[in-house]
Amino acid sequence: MAVYLDGTIVRQEKLSEDIRLMEIRCPEVAAAAQPGQFVTVRVNQLNEPLLRRPFGVAGAERAAGTFSLMYRIVGETTELMDAMEAGATISVVGPLGHGFHLGAKRGLLVGGGMGLAPLHFLAQADPDHKMEVIVGGRTRAEVFWSDLFKDKTARQYETTDDGSYGVK
User: What is the value of pTM for the model shown?
Assistant: First the structure.
């Protein structure tokens, strides 16, 4: 059963030219979210755009009652999200989906671009930091993910489509 909640934006952080990290205070989602799950959001601006958009949960701080989303500015909804400031309200449904299996002794996380957001939450959930990650991006500018995974994984590898950083 979907639960419609209002979250409060705690902060927005610019990770690259078109990628943002949004931290949202919504204790219900922060308490229940598991790595691999997602939420749908709608900006509360005259209920426009009408349809909700899905975003993988990129992390949760249960004690603080917050969770984070990472998004690329590509259309109307993400442009509206980018304009939102701390204190604004955003409509959230979730967490949704089944999430990742968490019983592995070791793991290799492989992702590129925005597909790394839910993997970030998975790495955060590993208290022993025994996972390794392959971080992919189109260019060196998109490999900012390496900094986000640095203290959460045993080892990382970087790749870029254009060969400007790491392995091509």
Answer: 0.88
The amino acid that residue 40 corresponds to is T
Residue 143 contacts residue 135 (beta carbons within 8 Å): yes
Using alpha carbons, list the distances in angstroms from residue 130 to 10, 117, 121, 123, 124: 30, 18, 14, 9, 11
d(CA 86, CA 163): 37
When pLDDT is cut at 50, 70 and 90, the band that residue 83 belongs to is very high
Rg (CA), the chain: 16
Separation CA 76–CA 81 (nearest Å): 9
The DSSP call for residue 127 is T
- As a whole number of angstroms, the distance between CA 96 and CA 10 comes to 22
Buried b (16+ CB within 10 A) or exposed e, 114-146: bebbbbbbbbbbbeeeebbbbbbbeeeebbebb
Question: In this structure, are residues 120 and 58 in contact, taking their beta carbons and an 8 Å threshold?
Answer: yes
Question: 49: how many CB neighbours lie within 10 A of its CB?
Answer: 14
Sequence length of the chain is 168
